[in-house]
């Protein structure tokens, strides 16, 4: 896996990243840090990637278990250290899973398997941050 990150120039703190799979992503800093707030912050991208990684796992595990899953949203709320390096210290994942007759045990199992075994991003972050998760099921 490869990515290339390039600074957009001397008038701000925005960067562009190109993924090995050929996608472009923009990142920017906060105005107080010289950015223009035109794109997500790099640490927000870390959370975005982690959310995508774990949501992917949860949907795949539920589908493989023949559950009728029709939607999966996950919100991540993180706390960071107050001093540099401002690493994540706590991250809470809240899943909202939609489907027909979903079994709470199956959803809980999928979330746990993602957190404990499959999601590389959350497992890596768990080495420095306290990770918690919750879920709710919506019939539909």
From TrEMBL:
Any one Pfam family match given in the protein's UniProt record, by short name: OsmC
SUPFAM superfamilies in the cross-refs: OsmC-like
Organism superkingdom: Bacteria
Protein name in the entry: OsmC family protein
Source organism of the structure: Massilia antarctica
